[in-house]
Amino acid sequence: MRIAILGASASASGAVDGILAYGISYMQGIGGLKSWQWTFLLEGSPIIPLGVLVYLLLDKVPNAVQWLNNIEKQLLTNLLRDDAGVADSESIPGTRLSWRQVRYVFIDWQIYLYSIIAGGNFAAIKYLITFLPTLTKAVGYTKTEAHLMTALPYAVACVCALLIYREVDKPMYQRGHLICGGLIAVSMVATIILRIYLMKENNRRTNLSPEEYTREVTIKEPCDRV
C-alpha cells in the first residue's frame, strides 16, 4: 500500500506540475524574468529547505520512526543487519564491503529482474514527461493549453493507484496485480494493433497517385488545427 501511495504521489506531482506550468506560462516578463526562469525558481526553490528538513527530521534507523508497527520495525532491522551487518546504529567489526558481496550483485537474478521492471517503469514515465506535452500540442492545443491538459492523465493515474491497491487486499494484493497485469496486456495489444495500422497506412500513402495525394493533403485533420 505504501508503494501505491508513493506511486500515486509521483502521479499527483505530475498533475500539479502541469497546472503550475500552465500558470507560470503567464508570468513571462514579470520581474524581468522569462517563464522558464520562473519555473526553475518556483518549482526548485522549495526543494532546498525540504531537503534540509528531511535530513534533520527523518530518522536513520527503523526503531526510531513512528509510522511503522513493531513487526515492520523488526523486519527492517533484520534486513539491514543481514544486508549490511549494521542496524540501529550498532557498530559491528568486520562489516566492510567485501568482493564477495560485489560478486553477488552481478550473479543475483533478482537484481536483474528488478532492473528490467524499474527500467520499463522509468522509461514509460520519462516518455510521458518528455513527449506528452508535445503530443497534446500536436492535437491542436496551444503550448500553454498543452501544459494544462497533461495534468489529466497524471490525476487519473493517481486516483487509480489508490483505488487498485487497497489496504484490505494485503499482503498479496492479488486484485491490484491482476488489474495491472490486465491493463498492461491491453496496452500491449493496443500498441501492436496501432503499429500494424500505421504500417499499413504508411504503405498506402507511399503508393498514392499524384491526384490522390493532392486530394488528401487538402483534408483537414485534428493535428492541423492551430
Write up what this structure looks like.
The protein is mainly alpha-helical and 226 residues long. It has 2 domains: 1-89 and 128-165, no CATH class; 174-226. It has helices spanning 2-24, 35-44, 47-57, 70-84, 99-107, 109-138, 143-149, 151-164, 174-206, 210-217. The longest helix has 33 residues, at 174-206. The radius of gyration is 25 Å and the shape is extended. Mean pLDDT is 77; it is low at 86-94.
Q: What is the fold's blueprint, element by element?
A:
Elements: H1 2-24, H2 35-44, H3 47-57, H4 70-84, H5 99-107, H6 109-138, H7 143-149, H8 151-164, H9 174-206, H10 210-217
Helix pairs in contact: 1-2, 1-7, 1-8, 6-7
Helix percent band:
over 70%
The percent range for strand residues is under 5%
* N to C succession of SSEs: HHHHHHHHHH
Rg over CA atoms, rounded to whole Å, is 25 Å
Domain count: 2
Please report the total strand number as a whole number: 0
Shape: extended
The mean pLDDT is 77
Low-confidence stretches: 86-94
Structural class: mainly alpha
Distance between the termini: 44 Å
Contiguous helical run count: 10
Please give the largest β-sheet. none
